[in-house]
Design brief:
Helix 2 packs antiparallel against helix 3 and helix 7 packs across helix 9. The protein has 2 domains: 161 residues, Jelly Rolls (Sandwich); 110 residues, Arc Repressor Mutant, subunit A (Orthogonal Bundle). The chain is α+β, with helices and mostly antiparallel strands. Helix content is 46%, strand content 17%. The radius of gyration is 20 Å and the shape is globular.
């Protein structure tokens, strides 16, 4: 078994297909609100952790698998003083996940279910060892020499096995009893506000407007939102706008139009915010994407 490593802040993949990690931390700050372009699977071995994913809060218990889709804003609160935070983490590129699926079986269906998102799977005891062993085997395979016999077959085979197991659990765990519990009136308020922001991100938004919309004081709204989501309303809206802006740029929309479409007051503000968030200007980001696509096409 590979020795677990400690937390690092990297949220980008270094490989084109998948990355696997086994992490153990005894002292760790909260994970700040972020998003990424790949699927993320977190299997909790031990620890006291709560994740906010978009408008929902998930208390993750040992033996649970948290599933996060590309572009979903999420953050984590970890009480490392209560128990070591040990988990297996698997990142999977959408294109790689698509290649693993068949016409009959879309393996990424496990990330959604019914009227809500099936993000948290409470694995039955009989499957926990199988899932952990599979995560460990994927990790071991990721460290195997790419030239080894069957190297290009083993990782996909293990991943298909893992996804089928999880997909069957996801099919069983649908319905209101598997929805995350929102504790108290404030939690329900924040969920409603976040859902509203996700729909109206391109409009002029302010605490005053939101407080009026939801019939609460802006001070209560601000405190409740930060407490549950882990960031301010302003920062959440900014990240949501930038997240969608990056997707539209990748789809070929002109940066000036993206700016307007995503609710930024002017291009200068959009330019500064985008570069501060991603380290590249909008046009530099588009150029980088084109170069990557051209390299992929050359093989």
């Amino acid at each position: 078994m590979a020795r677990p490593t400690s937390f690092d802040r990297r949220q980008t993949m270094l490989r084109p297909d998948y990355e696997s990690q086994h992490k153990l931390d005894t002292a760790l700050e909260d994970v700040q609100l972020h998003h990424h372009d790949f699927y993320e699977l977190i299997y909790l071995v031990s620890g006291d952790v709560t994740y906010s994913v978009e408008s929902r809060v998930y208390r993750v218990m040992p033996g649970n698998m948290l599933l996060i889709s590309p572009q979903e804003l999420h953050s984590g609160r970890i009480r490392a003083d209560m128990a070591p935070y040990e988990r297996y983490v698997l990142w999977v590129a959408p294109a790689f996940a698509e290649r693993l699926s068949t016409r009959r079986t879309n393996l990424m269906e496990l990330f959604s279910g019914g009227a809500g998102r099936c993000r948290l799977l409470r694995l039955p005891l009989r499957l926990r060892k199988a899932v952990r062993d599979c995560m460990e085997a994927i990790l071991q395979e990721s460290e195997t020499d790419a030239a080894a016999y069957g190297a290009e077959l083993m990782a996909p085979a293990l991943m298909m096995q893992l996804f089928v197991i999880l997909g069957r659990v996801a099919k069983e765990q649908t319905g209101p009893e598997y929805e995350p519990e929102q504790e108290g009136i404030s939690a329900a308020l924040v969920t409603s506000v976040t859902d509203y922001l996700n729909l109206h991100y391109n409009e002029t938004l302010s605490l005053d407007r939101l407080a009026e919309q939801f019939f609460v004081s802006k001070y209560h709204l601000s405190h409740a939102f930060t407490q549950q989501v882990g960031t301010s309303v302003y920062r959440y809206v900014q990240k949501k706008r930038l997240q969608i802006a990056r997707r539209l740029l990748a789809q070929g929309m002109q940066s000036s139009r993206v700016c307007t479409q995503c609710g930024f007051a002017d291009y200068a503000g959009f330019f500064r915010a985008f570069k501060a968030e991603y380290g590249l200007a909008p046009r530099e980001y588009v150029t980088q994407l084109r170069q990557r696509d051209a390299a992929a096409a050359r093989g």
